[in-house]
Amino acid sequence: MKLLLLMLVVGAPAVSAADYHVAITNHANTNESLPGGSYTITVTGTASGTDTVSVDFITSGTAVPGVHYQAFPQRIKIPVTDGNGSFTFPVIPVQNRIVEDYADVVLSIQSATTNKSDSVEVDATPTTLRIYDDDLINAIISFTGSTNGTEGGPDATITASLSSDYIAGQPIWVSASFGTGTTAGFRDIDGPTLRIDSGQHNVVAVINVLDDQVKEDTELIYFDITGIVSGDFEMMYDGATYGPIYVFDNNDTIEPVRSANVFINYVGSPREADPQVDGYISLYTIPTGDDFVIQPITVKIQMEGTAIEGIDYLPVDSIVIPVSKYNNGTVTVPIHPINDKVIEGDEYIHVVLVSASTPTGDPITVYNNNPAATVPLYDDDFDRRSIAISAATDGREGGLAASLTLSYPDSLVAAEDVHVNYHVIATGTTATAGVDYTMPPLLIPAGQHSATLPINILDDNQVEPTEYLNLQIDGGNGDSAFYPVNSDSVVVISIADNDSSYIRLCIPNVFTPNGDGRNDLFVIRGLENYPGSRLSVFNLLRGGVLVYRSDNYDNSWDGRRAGPGLYSYILEVNERGRKKIYRGKLVIIR
């Protein structure tokens, strides 16, 4: 028995495991204005019965006890039953006056013990509880004070402050710009740098006064707050202009040199439309001397490009930049397009600065180094360059020619010759080119709103019904663009005949030479009045083979050499010294 017991002990080594496990299992963030957040610490284990687990922890983070939250004990006791228990304790925020995003309380379990001396393991992973700040909605930054400055000293100052009794919880950068009325420039002052440091209510920023030794008047400074930068949050600020702050010049005797450079800032594209959209030219100046130019600057300009001044837009010969003391001078003048009703496509305008001057001859230099000085002049007429059938007249043999008039919409004209394409539609056309009519090419000349296509009618001396010409307009081609035709692109022209017979002939279209004594001969009534008439008959079913001809037809043909089928005839008669030709179809039935 002893040997067996020894073997059992040796063969089953003991497993070392703690009786309790302690961890932070939950937390709740809070806000300064809320009742508070909380931490939950949980005990789990395998021990039986009741016990008490004492947990020691440490705190860290950006939140400061007594400043951001009420301090709490660093040890808690958790009652445990059968190995399990938990405890939730509050973290109560302090309503302070510190402006910041938030403050973090970082809690870490350091150790844990039990009343029964059972083994305990802890999860020391730090857990962060965040206390959000509510002062951002009330704190406002504004300029609250200043001192004047003098060349040679002392410097000027300006004070930016938080409202009420708020202090900064982290650095707050205040962005500012010169306000309206400022007469001091970059040669007069330098700065300031506006940063309210953490723990501070305000900042007194120095405005360095530069001793330029150039004689000048007392100058003024006005400031506008333009933005606040501090971590991830934004703050409200007073947008009212602050000032003036005076900068005195008590020690200078040298008269200032005033000079400037003139640049093209940008040029806006005009659009030729109804209503028109103006373009614009914007110029700006940068002082280069001791002081700003205090007289208007007249800039001579030259407009180049494919757009023509006075035709495509109203002339612009010079631009006056008004007095711009203490600031970079800028001016914008319009470019007025002329709605010329010409289909020409987009053109471009290139602005060139030729020279610049002031009434007293201050040195002014112009620069032409801006690619934006070239802009298109948009032609809205180009998008309406369709061709329409505006008129059509029918024709008559021996009378006036037929015609077809094509035009652009409204009162538009094209800037180029446009060759119009058309074709004859076989369906519905009974007139024959070269026999009944001729048509020349159609051209709408540049600068012309419309053009008329004459359709020459040929007098063929053939008696025939009114014939028709079915035309399709396919559009036009210029050197630079295609000109489409609108939806009404088909027109039918009629050609009336002037070849009426002296004595009406009645030519049958059916002939039945079957020996029944009726209609056995091809008889043309009225033909006896036209001696010497010539009749030719062709078999259409055999490719138009001639089956009968008589040079002095006397109504005696009995259909010899012609079987049943479809034929055509040509009858030539002399009427008042003119030859008349009749054509038609003939069906022979036997």
Automatic annotation (TrEMBL):
Residues 39-135, 303-380, 415-476 form the Calx-beta domain. Pfam families: Calx-beta, CHU_C. Keywords: Calcium, Repeat, Signal. Residues 1-17 form the signal peptide. This is Gliding motility-associated C-terminal domain-containing protein. Gene3D superfamilies: 2.60.40.2030. InterPro entries: CalX-like_sf, Calx_beta, T9SS_type_B. SUPFAM superfamilies: CalX-like. It comes from the Bacteria. The keyword Calcium applies.
